[in-house]
C-alpha cells in the first residue's frame, strides 16, 4: 500500500521513511546540515535523545540494537560528527549490531570540490564503506524512502551490522513531492545446501562428545539451539556475544572455563553464528592465522555470511539462518543421535572445576557474584574492558537469558560500556540494567551522566576505581621490568562529580556492600553511580583463565 504523496523536506523524508521502518527512538547530536531532520522530529512521537558526544549517540544505538534485536538509529553531522561516532560504528560492525546512521553532507554543488566547506571530508561514503556494511548518498528527497528502506533492510539482514545514509545540506532543506513506500521485505534466507546438511547430520550422528559454541548470530535462536543441544546432549558455550543463548545455569549451558575443561575431548564442534575466537585464537595461537583448524575436533559452522566459511574453513559449512539450520538438524537427528548418558555428569564436573578456578580470580569474582545476586535473571549487564569486565568472560558472572550481556565484540573498544549501557536502558526501561566499568574506560564517556539525568535513564553504573589502567600497569610490571609509563590515573572525586550532574552516588569497598548498594539503587530506579574503591594492582590477572592452553584441572597449579 502506497502512502500519499506529500511535500516534504529531504530531512523530513528521511525521518518519515525511518518511522515507516519502525524507528521509535533516535539518538543524535544536531548541527546545521541536519537541522531539517531534527525539525522533522519535532512534534512526532519519536523519542529523541541527545547525548553529549557523538560517540555516545552511536553506542546508544548499538546498545539499543544488541539488547532488543531491533535496529538502532542515530543521527550526527557529517565529517567530525561521523568520525566521532566511528569507533562505535566499527564496534557495532564487529559485534553485528543492526544500526542505521543518518547524516548530512556539504551542499551538493561543493561535492568533491575540496573547497573546505563545513565538515567536508574527501569522500564520506567511501570512508564509511571501509568501516561498516554499506553507505549511500540520498541524492533527492524523492529517493529517501527507497534508500532508507534499503538501509534498514541491510542493517538487519544477513549478518546484521551498521549502515549509513547521507544527504547534502541543500537537498535536506529543500521541499519536494515525496512518497513514503512501505518497508522492504526482509532479505530472503539462503537455501541450505542438502549435501552440507547431510554431511553435518552424519558427523553429528557419529559424534561422541559434540559441543556447540554460540556467537551473536545465535541470539535470536535460543529455543532452536537448546533443542539441538538436548538432542545431542551437547554442552553449549560462548565467549561474549553468544552468552545466555542457553542459560549458564541450565545443565548444558557452560561458560568459557567449563567449556575449556571439556574441550580436549570434543570430537565435533558446531559453531552457531560465531567467529570461534575463543577456541582457536584465545585457547590456541592468536598470533598465527590459520585458514582451517590444523587440529582439534571436526568443525561444523552455521553462519548466514558465506564469507565466514572462507575466512575460517570448517569441515562442513551451513550457510543459513541459525534458527533454521538448528531446526533442520534437530529434525534429522531425532532418531539418529546417540547422546551419551555420561555426558551430563562430565559437564557437571567441568562446571565444578570451573567454579573452583574462578573462585581464585579475586576480588573480581566476589564482586561479580554480588552483582549477579542483585540482578534478576532478565537484568542486563554491560561489561567494559576492565579487570572486572574481563573476569565476566570466564563465567564469573553467569548469563541467564539471551541479550542480557551486551559486550564489545572483537574490537575491544575501551569506553564503549557506559554509553552503550545507557542505550540498553533506553530500550529496556522495564528491566534493571547495570554498567560495570573501570575508572579509565568510564572517563571516556563520563559526560553522559548529564544524558542519564536529562532523560531519566535509570542506569546503575558501577565504577571500579583502581586509579590505573590496571591491565597496562600489570603488563608493565610483569613484562617490562616495572617500567611504568602512562598507566596511573589521577581521577576526580567520582561522588562529587556524579553529584554535580545530579546523579545519586555512593562509595563501597566490599562485595556485600556492593550487593546492598546495587539492590537499593535498582529499587530506587534512578540514574546512579556506585564507586568501588580498589587499590591499584590488587586484582588477580584474569588472562590465565581466558587464554587457556590447558584444561583448567591440569593448569590449576599454574593458576593464580
Ligand atoms: C579504544 C581503546 N583504547 C585503548 C585500549 C587499551 N586498553 C584496554 S584495557 C585498558 C585499561 C582500562 O583501564 P580501566 O578502565 O581503568 O579498567 P581497569 O583495567 O583498571 O579495571 C586500556 C588502556 C582499548 N582496548 N581500546
Radius of gyration: 24 Å
Helix content: 25-40%
Strand content: 15-25%
Question: Which overall shape is indicated by the principal axes computed on the Cα atoms?
Answer: globular
The average pLDDT score comes to: 97
State the major sheet: 6 strands, parallel
Low-confidence stretches: none
Number of H- or I-type helical stretches: 24
Strands, helices and their partners?
Layout lengths: L4 E5 H11 L4 E4 L6 H7 L5 E3 L4 H15 L3 E5 L3 H5 L1 H9 L4 E7 L18 H6 L4 E5 L5 H13 L5 E7 H5 L1 E5 L14 H13 L3 E5 L7 H11 L3 E3 L17 H8 L4 E5 L4 H6 L15 E6 L2 H6 L4 E4 L2 H12 L9 H17 L4 H11 L5 E3 L4 H10 L20 H11 L5 E6 H4 L6 H6 L5 E6 L4 H10 L14 H8 L2 E5 L2 H14 L3 E6 L18 H4 L5
Parallel strand pairs: 2-3, 2-4, 4-5, 5-7, 6-7, 9-10, 9-11, 11-12, 12-13, 14-15, 15-16, 16-18, 17-18
Antiparallel strand pairs: 1-8
Helix pairs in contact: 1-2, 1-7, 3-5, 3-18, 9-14, 10-14, 11-15, 16-17, 16-23
The structure holds thiamine diphosphate (TPP).
Amino acid at each position: 500500500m502506497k502512502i500519499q504523496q506529500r511535500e516534504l523536506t529531504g530531512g523530513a523524508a528521511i525521518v518519515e521513511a525511518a518511522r515507516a521502518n519502525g524507528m521509535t527512538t533516535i539518538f543524535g547530536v544536531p548541527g546545521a546540515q541536519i537541522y531539517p531532520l531534527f525539525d522533522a522530529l519535532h512534534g512526532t512521537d519519536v523519542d529523541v535523545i541527545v547525548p553529549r558526544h557523538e560517540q555516545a549517540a552511536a553506542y546508544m544505538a548499538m546498545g539499543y540494537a544488541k539488547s532488543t534485536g531491533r535496529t538502532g538509529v542515530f543521527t550526527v553531522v557529517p565529517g567530525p560528527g561521523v568520525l566521532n561516532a566511528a569507533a562505535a560504528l566499527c564496534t557495532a560492525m564487529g559485534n553485528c549490531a543492526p544500526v542505521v546512521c543518518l547524516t548530512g553532507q556539504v551542499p551538493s554543488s561543493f561535492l568533491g570540490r575540496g573547497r573546505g566547506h563545513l565538515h567536508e571530508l574527501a569522500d564520506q561514503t567511501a570512508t564509511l564503506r571501509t568501516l561498516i556494511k554499506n553507505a549511500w548518498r540520498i541524492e533527492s528527497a524523492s529517493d529517501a524512502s527507497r534508500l532508507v528502506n534499503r538501509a534498514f533492510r541491510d542493517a538487519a539482514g544477513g549478518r546484521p551490522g551498521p549502515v549509513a545514509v547521507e544527504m547534502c545540506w541543500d537537498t535536506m532543506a529543500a521541499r519536494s513531492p515525496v512518497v513514503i513506500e512501505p518497508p522492504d521485505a526482509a532479505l530472503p534466507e539462503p537455501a541450505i545446501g542438502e549435501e552440507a546438511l547431510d554431511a553435518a547430520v552424519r558427523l553429528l550422528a557419529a559424534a561422541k562428545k559434540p559441543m556447540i559454541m554460540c556467537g551473536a548470530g545465535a541470539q535470536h535462536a535460543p529455543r532452536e539451539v537448546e533443542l539441538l543441544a538436548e538432542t545431542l546432549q551437547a554442552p553449549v558455550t560462548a565467549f561474549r556475544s553468544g552468552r545466555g543463548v542457553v542459560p549458564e545455569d541450565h545443565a548444558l549451558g557452560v561458560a568459557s572455563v567449563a567449556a575449556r575443561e571439556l574441550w580436549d575431548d570434543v570430537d565435533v564442534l558446531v559453531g552457531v553464528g560465531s567467529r570461534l575466537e575463543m577456541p582457536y585464537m584465545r585457547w590456541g595461537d592468536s598470533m598465527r592465522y590459520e585458514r582451517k583448524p590444523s587440529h582439534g575436533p571436526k568443525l561444523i559452522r552455521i553462519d548466514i555470511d558465506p564469507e565466514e566459511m572462507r575466512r575460517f574453513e570448517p569441515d562442513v559449512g551451513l550457510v543459513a539462518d541459525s534458527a533454521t539450520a538448528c531446526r533442520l538438524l534437530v529434525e534429522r537427528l531425532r532418531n539418529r543421535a546417540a547422546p551419551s548418558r555420561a555426558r551430563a555428569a562430565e559437564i557437571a564436573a567441568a562446571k565444578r572445576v570451573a567454579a573452583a578456578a574462578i573462585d581464585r580470580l579475586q576480588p573480581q569474582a566476589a564482586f561479580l557474584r554480588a552483582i549477579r545476586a542483585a540482578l534478576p535473571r532478565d537484568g542486563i549487564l554491560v561489561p567494559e574492558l576492565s579487570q572486572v569486565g574481563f573476569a565476566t568472560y570466564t563465567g564469573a558472572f553467569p548469563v541467564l537469558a539471551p541479550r542480557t550481556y551486551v559486550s564489545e565484540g572483537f574490537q575491544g573498544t575501551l569506553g564503549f560500556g557506559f554509553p552503550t549501557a545507557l542505550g540498553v536502558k533506553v530500550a529496556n526501561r522495564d528491566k534493571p540494567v547495570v554498567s560495570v566499568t573501570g575508572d579509565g574506560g568510564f572517563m571516556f564517556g563520563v559526560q553522559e551522566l548529564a544524558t542519564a539525568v536529562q532523560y531519566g535513564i535509570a542506569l546503575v553504573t558501577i565504577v571500579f576505581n583502581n586509579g590505573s589502567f590496571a591491565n597496562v600497569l600489570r603488563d608493565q610490571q610483569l613484562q617490562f621490568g616495572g617500567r611504568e609509563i602512562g598507566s596511573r590515573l589521577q581521577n576526580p572525586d567520582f561522588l562529587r562529580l556524579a553529584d554535580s550532574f545530579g546523579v545519586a552516588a555512593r562509595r563501597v569497598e566490599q562485595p556485600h556492600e556492593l550487593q546492598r548498594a546495587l539492590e537499593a539503587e535498582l529499587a530506587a530506579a534512578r540514574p546512579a553511580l556506585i564507586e568501588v574503591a580498589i587499590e591499584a594492582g590488587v586484582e588477580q590477572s584474569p588472562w590465565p583463565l581466558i587464554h587457556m592452553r590447558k584444561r583448567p584441572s591440569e593448569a590449576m597449579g599454574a593458576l593464580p
